[in-house]
Every structure is written in structure tokens, then in C-alpha cells.
Design a protein that fits this description.
The structure holds two protein chains of two kinds. Chain A is an alpha+beta fold. Chain A has helices at about 85-90, 125-130, 165-170, 190-195, 245-260, 270-280, 295-305, 350-365, 370-375, 440-455, 460; strands at about 5, 15-20, 30, 35-40, 45-50, 55-60, 65-70, 70-75, 105, 260-270, 315, 320, 330-335, 335-345, 380-385, 405-415, 420-435. In chain A, the strands form four sheets. Chain A has a six-stranded mixed β-sheet, sandwiched between helices. A five-stranded antiparallel β-sheet of chain A has the order 7-2-4-5-9, with no helix packed on it. The chains are: A alpha+beta, B alpha/beta.
């Protein structure tokens, strides 16, 4: 009889998950451990592995459906079992079952997150490209809602293509479903891939824009590019497939920008004393424990949030949940996207603890070993592009949070102190806030209160 | 470059090696006074004498068993089996002794032994005398299996086989003795365990050996007239099997046809195709085709025999399946 796969519980407080995509179609063979579907929770997109080997008899939920934990999502028939047998097994709705039957999950480097910027110096230029505007909205379309299953020209349930053609298609970012095969039985072969022209009309996409210049490095100035009329062939357009992480980023960012009415307030802070304090503290610290500017900002943002519970909040239906915990999300750049790691109860922790935790979680994220706990439960986010010589920028809110703080670079700048003109260290920060939850005055008040910690940083050490 | 027959090439190899090394000697049915069933050893008896060119009783077990014993004492026997079909009678000596003694006795002795034999069909010798059981022998670790398809290789590989310290089954093809080809002047060797490109091409890789090389070359010439350039890889040695030129060629052409005279099931083609799938899967652009003997005992009737054996047209048809 058919075995039932259920919605796995991926986090302590997970009650339901969205079945984003079926990886295995009905009728397709599956081996134990193979990826069955992708599931998204508030914070993570996760691959669900099949606990059984067999054939997918039936999808019990549509793509896009929100499914309570423990509810059946699919039936897998044993290899060799006939459909009739499985029908029989199906008549009795299988109640939730022992642990052995639970779908196994594999957490992959999490998508999610938005246009935040990592704090670490190792940030990839690539990540910067994502920019506060998020990735191309084009990626969004396929993923939304219970999608109508695209019906590619398939034979016997699979697209016939030679292994070489498949590999070439992946390398060139081509979708096999749009290609007519000229081999035996309509099989797509090498020549079919090679004769395809790259769509010349495709406008350059953001992801193909020139990479952001690397962070300035005074020690090793790079020579300016040679002048003159460029010779040689202009590189051809590249078609790059949108991977899962980028799709998820795209989906969430579109969702946020479409559904959350953002407003923005920018303030400038003189952080000369904070920079001096950091310098003093770091003089005592071994290299791997030195504090970053962002560690101070996380602490300051968290302490300030204690006074503004309405900004440390989420809108849920017709209620606003004001969180008791202050959990700050910090964006980390991955090779091909971004992920927010969460520093829990940042208002309660000394800066050194914040610094260590963020470093550890960022390292796990970059090596693909992030834990669900690392990325769950943020109530407010900080995005820092300071290392890229950024004046200021506005970030997209990371739902379901109500606000995000975007931090620019610290730069020497003229400031007026007691009527005198002096050189201070200026840093601009912009809060993006959800107008359904809060208003301009409250957000401005928050930005003002932030100054107390950023400009008088000893409070950060005793707060 | 002299142009000689494969019979002459093999004969030269034996002669040269016997002149070179007094430990080399020949034994087999009618190799001495008669000069060999295929006339390869004509004149040897008179020149080298009965000690080194020994006629034996009609017992393949005795021939191989005696040769194994001689090799264990330090001689380098070249035992001749009139056809490979008779090797079955000596199977125990070949696979249980020659292929394993060095291993089972911890390397205490070597077996510098060559078993020359003749395989293949096409001469109306009937079902039991026309087989191509090469794959059976290539199955056993410890036994080297060589089967040349050109005149030059026949000479160079036989000389290498005689100089090898491992037991070598050297399979000649019954219909190739009259084939003429050029051989390099003077002393030369062809290494065992090296496949080679016999014809360059870009559209499909034909993997073959022995008699089927000749068939494949003819097919390639006809295909070339239609604009299909086949690259032909000659395995030359079945064990150890050198896949490198095959894989290199396949990665260029992305298509392969394997041509062998033996039966398809569990054959050389199966092995080569599997290795390609294992090591070059992402280069496969079409299912690999095998051309082989029909799955029947080879008929005696001339027409039926030719129908059962792989022909030039079969190779052409298989190539057209994949390009």
C-alpha cells in the first residue's frame, strides 16, 4: 500500500509550511533520500527528502498550498506495486505516523532575506549587486501561487534529451522544455543546443550588470584600466539560470514591496566617539575577536528597540504582535545571494557576545552548514553596506518584520559642535518601516533615540 | 617499410625472438615437421631443431599444462592452440593456473608464457570451430589478452607478448593471415595494453579490434562519401583494456559504435559501452550502439554464416543510428 509523506516540522515553533515546489512529479520514481519537494517556512526554504523509495502515486497538496505540520502531502507507492493496490491503501486516510515515516529534511543555505548587506569584509561584490532593489522581478513569475503546471513536450513523463545536451543546456542556461529535439524520437541532442541563438533582444538584466568595484584598498591600488579604443570581440550575452536561492529572494522581495507600504527616514550620526571606543577596545582583542562597526550598531539598534516595542513588531491579520524578545537579523553575503542570520536577544548581550555569534553564524552560512535556529525568529534587521563606501541607501523590509535599518559608510565630514566647525565621523542610516504598523513620527523618534547610543557609545557597554 | 602478410609478420616475430633469446621455444600440434596449421612456423623445425620446435600430442590440456610447467622453470614457451575453440579443453590450465599462480604463490614465480591461438568465423568451419570467445578470456584478472588487427601490430605485439613475464593469450584471426600491410623495418615493439586511433574522424567513434577493424575501416570509407567521418579506435589488447583513446575520442564525437565479432551479450561492446557511460556520461549525445554477431551458433551454410557475422553494412547502419 501507499506510504504517506507528511509536512515535516522544521523549527521549534513551526506550525505550517508552504509547499513551494514539487521536485518529483506524480508517476515519477523516487529513491529514499531524494528531494521530493521544496518547502518554505517564514524563514527558510528547505528540501524535503523522500523517506521511501518508490513511485510518487499522488500529490495530496498543490504547489503554493500552506500545509499544517504533520498533514499528508504525498503518497509514495512501493516499487512494483500496482496502482490498484495503492488505491486500496489510500481509502483509509493514514493518520500521522511514527518518526520513521517523517520526511527527512535537508536545510540548505537559506534563501530568504533581502537587500541587506553583510557586514563582513569578505562580502562578495556579487552580493552587493543584489542591491536594495532586490533581484529581477522576472524570477518571481514562475514561483507564485498554486502554479499551473507547465506542460513541456514530454515523452513518457520525461523530456528526452541526451546527457550531453542536458549538460550543455545547464551550462548555457537554456530551458530544455522550450527546445525542439531533432534526434531519434524527438530527443534533444547537442546540435539542437548549439543551433539556439542567445535571445539578442533580451535587455541586460541586473544580474549581468558589471560587478560592483571591490572595496577600496589603499595598500594595493589597482592601476586604472587602459585607455584607447577597445579591440577584440565584445563578449556575447550570457543567459544565467535563476537558482533556487535567487528565486526565493526574488519572491520574498516582490512580496514585501507589493504588500508592505514602506516609508523611509534617514538620519546622520556623528560616530567619532564610537569609532574611537572601538579602536581602544580592539587594541585588547585578538584578531579573530575584534569588534566590527556593525556589532556596535546591532547593539545600539537592539537597545533602542526596547523603548519602541511597536517597531519591534509584526502585523498579523488585524493584530500587531509586539515582540518581547529583540532578535536582530544580520545579512550575510553568500556566493550567490544573501541570508540573514539572527542574533537572539541582542539587547541583553554584551557586544562581544553579539560579535562572536554573528561571526559563527556567518561562517556556517557561507559553508552551507547553517542551522534552522541561525535564521529563525528575527524581529528587526540591520543591513550594512558601510564597507562599500556608501553614502546611504534604503532597504526592503524583511517580512514579517516591521522595519529594517540600512547603514551607510562612516566618513570624516564637517560637523558643527557648539557653533564651531569641526571634522567629525559621519554615518547615515535609513530606516524602512511598515506604515501599517508604525508612522513617520514614531520611526523618526526611534532614529533620534538611536543617536543616544551611537553618539554616546559608553552606554552600549553598560546597557 | 616492407609490405608483408600477417602470416609473415607473425612468423618474423617468432623467428626474431627465438634468435634473440634461447629460452624461447614453440610447442603445439603440427607446428614442427608440418610447419603449422596456418603455415606460420614453416622452416622453423629445420632451423631451430626439434628441441625448440616441439610437436605435441592432440591434447590442449597437455600443451598448455606443459607450457606452464616450462615457464615456471624459466623458459619462455610459445604454445600454439590450433583454434581458440580448443582452448576450452585447456580452460582449467589457462584460467586456474596460468592466470593465478603468480598471485597465489605470493609472486614467487613468473609465467613468461604465450598461448598463440586462432579465433573468428567466416571460413565455414561450423558452429564449434568458428567462435569468437575473446570476452570470456578477458574476464579473468591475471591473464593478458591481445588480439591485433593490423600486420604491423601483429608483429610488434607478439614480440612484446613473448618478452612479457605474464601469461598472454594471443588471439589471431583465421581470415587475416593473407592480409597485407606495411611493417616498420628492423626491430620494433608495440606495447601491450595500448589502444590506438587507426583512422581519425570527428563525427562518431567506432571502437573495435581484430578482424572487425578491417570491416570498420571499410564502413568508414563508405560513410566518408556521405560526409560522415568516423574515428576508429583499435583496442588491440582486451585486458588490460586501455580506455583512454576511446574516451578522448568519444568526448570529441559524443557518439560511439562498438564493433566486435563475438556475441553481443556480455561481450566486449558491453564492457566498453559501460566504461564510456561511467566515465563520460555527460558527453553522451546518443545511445551507444553495438554491432556484434547474431545470437545463434554460427551456421555452416556460407550465406547464413555471413548473415550471422557483422558486416560492413551493419556498421554503417549502426553509425547512422547515432549521428
Amino acid at each position: 500500500m501507499a506510504e504517506t509523506v507528511t509536512m515535516p516540522k522544521l523549527g521549534f515553533d513551526m506550525a505550517e509550511g508552504t509547499l513551494v515546489r514539487w521536485v518529483k512529479s506524480e508517476g515519477e520514481a523516487v529513491s529514499k533520500g531524494e528531494t521530493l519537494a521544496e518547502i518554505e517556512t517564514d524563514k527558510a526554504t528547505v528540501e524535503v527528502e523522500s523517506p521511501y523509495s518508490g513511485v510518487i502515486h499522488k500529490h495530496l497538496v498543490e504547489q503554493g498550498a500552506v500545509v499544517p505540520v504533520g498533514s499528508p502531502i504525498a503518497e509514495v507507492t512501493a516499487p512494483g506495486e500496482t496502482a490498484a493496490e495503492s488505491q486500496e491503501g489510500k481509502t483509509e486516510p493514514v493518520p500521522q505516523t511514527p518518526a520513521a515515516e517523517k520526511a527527512e529534511v535537508k536545510v540548505t543555505p537559506k534563501p530568504e532575506v533581502e537587500a541587506q548587506q553583510p557586514e563582513s569584509a569578505g562580502a562578495q561584490a556579487e552580493a552587493a549587486r543584489t542591491g536594495p532593489n532586490g533581484p529581477s522581478p522576472q524570477t518571481e513569475v514562475q514561483e507564485k501561487g498554486p502554479e499551473t503546471k507547465s506542460a513541456p513536450p514530454e515523452v513518457g513523463g520525461i523530456q528526452r534529451a541526451s546527457p550531453l545536451a542536458r549538460r550543455l543546456a545547464v551550462e548555457r542556461g537554456l530551458d530544455l522544455t522550450n527546445i525542439q529535439g531533432s534526434g531519434p524520437g524527438g530527443r534533444i541532442v547537442k546540435r539542437d543546443i548549439e543551433t539556439i541563438q542567445v535571445q539578442p533582444a533580451a535587455p541586460p538584466q541586473p544580474s549581468q550588470a558589471p560587478a560592483a568595484p571591490p572595496p577600496p584598498d589603499k595598500k594595493a591600488p589597482t592601476p586604472p584600466p587602459a585607455v584607447g579604443i577597445p579591440t577584440g570581440a565584445i563578449p556575447e550575452d550570457q543567459v544565467v539560470p535563476v537558482d533556487r536561492l535567487r528565486r526565493a529572494i526574488g519572491r520574498r522581495m516582490v512580496e514585501s514591496k507589493q504588500q508592505v507600504p514602506h516609508f523611509y527616514i534617514t538620519s546622520a550620526y556623528d560616530v567619532a566617539r564610537m569609532m574611537e571606543l572601538r579602536k581602544q577596545i580592539n587594541a585588547y582583542m585578538p584578531d579573530d575577536q575584534k569588534l566590527s562597526v556593525n556589532d556596535f550598531i546591532v547593539k545600539a539598534a537592539a537597545l533602542t528597540l526596547r523603548q519602541f516595542p511597536n517597531i519591534n513588531a509584526s502585523l498579523k491579520g488585524d493584530q500587531v504582535i509586539r515582540y518581547g524578545h529583540v532578535n536582530i537579523g544580520v545579512a550575510v553575503a553568500l556566493d550567490a545571494g544573501l541570508i540573514t542570520v539572527v542574533c537572539k536577544d541582542a539587547d541583553q548581550k554584551p557586544i562581544r557576545v553579539i560579535s562572536r555569534e554573528v561571526k559563527e553564524m556567518a561562517a556556517r552560512a557561507r559553508s552551507g552548514k547553517v542551522k534552522p535556529d541561525d535564521i529563525e525568529g528575527s524581529t528587526f534587521s540591520v543591513s550594512n553596506l558601510g564597507m562599500y563606501n556608501v553614502e546611504d541607501f534604503a532597504a526592503i523590509i524583511n517580512p514579517p518584520e516591521a522595519a529594517i535599518l540600512a547603514v551607510g559608510s562612516v566618513k570624516p565630514a564637517p560637523v558643527a559642535v557648539d557653533g564651531e566647525l569641526k571634522v567629525g565621523m559621519l554615518m547615515k542610516a535609513t530606516i524602512s518601516a511598515d506604515h501599517r504598523v508604525t508612522d513617520g513620527a514614531e520611526a523618526a523618534h526611534y532614529m533620534q533615540a538611536l543617536a543616544r547610543y551611537l553618539e554616546d557609545p559608553l552606554l552600549l557597554l553598560v546597557g | 617499410m616492407a609490405r608483408i602478410t600477417m602470416r609473415e609478420a607473425i612468423s618474423q616475430a617468432l623467428w626474431e625472438e627465438m634468435e634473440r633469446d634461447p629460452c624461447v621455444f614453440i610447442m603445439g600440434e603440427e607446428v614442427g615437421v608440418w610447419g603449422g596449421t596456418y603455415a606460420v612456423t614453416k622452416g622453423f623445425y629445420d632451423h631451430f631443431g626439434p628441441e625448440r620446435v616441439r610437436d605435441t600430442p592432440i591434447s590442449e590440456a597437455a600443451i598448455v599444462g606443459g607450457a606452464i610447467g616450462a615457464s615456471l622453470t624459466g623458459l619462455r614457451p610459445v604454445a600454439e592452440l590450433m583454434t581458440i575453440n580448443f582452448a576450452f579443453v585447456a580452460m582449467d590450465h589457462i584460467v586456474n593456473e596460468s592466470a593465478k599462480l603468480h598471485y597465489m604463490f605470493g609472486g614467487q614465480m613468473i609465467l613468461p608464457l604465450v598461448i598463440r591461438t586462432v579465433g573468428g568465423g567466416g571460413r565455414q568451419l561450423g558452429a564449434t570451430h568458428s567462435q569468437t570467445p575473446d570476452a570470456i578470456f578477458a574476464h579473468f584478472p591475471g591473464l593478458t589478452v591481445v588480439s591485433p588487427g593490423t600486420v604491423a601490430d601483429a608483429k610488434g605485439l607478439l614480440k612484446s607478448s613473448i618478452r612479457s613475464d605474464n601469461p598472454v593469450l594471443f588471439i589471431e584471426h583465421a581470415t587475416l593471415y593473407q592480409m597485407r600491410g606495411e611493417v616498420p623495418d628492423g626491430e620494433y615493439l608495440v606495447p601491450i595494453g595500448k589502444s590506438t586511433i587507426q583512422r581519425p574522424g570527428s563525427d562518431v567513434t567506432i571502437v573495435t579490434y581484430s578482424k572487425m577493424l578491417e570491416v570498420s575501416l571499410k564502413a568508414a570509407d563508405q560513410l566518408a562519401k556521405e560526409g560522415i567521418e568516423a574515428e576508429i579506435v583499435d583496442l588491440r589488447t582486451l585486458r588490460p583494456l586501455d580506455m583512454e583513446p576511446v574516451l578522448e575520442s568519444f568526448k570529441k564525437t559524443n557518439r560511439a559504435v562498438i564493433v566486435e565479432e563475438g556475441w553481443r551479450s556480455f561481450g566486449v561492446g558491453s564492457e566498453v559501452a559501460s566504461r564510456i557511460y561511467e566515465e563520460a556520461f555527460d558527453y553522451v549525445d546518443a545511445p551507444i550502439q553495438r554491432v556484434a554477431q547474431k545470437e545463434v551458433p554460427l551456421p555452416y551454410n556460407r550465406t547464413l554464416e555471413q548473415m550471422a557475422l557483422p558486416q560492413v553494412d551493419d556498421v554503417i547502419a549502426a553509425v547512422k543510428e547515432v549521428v
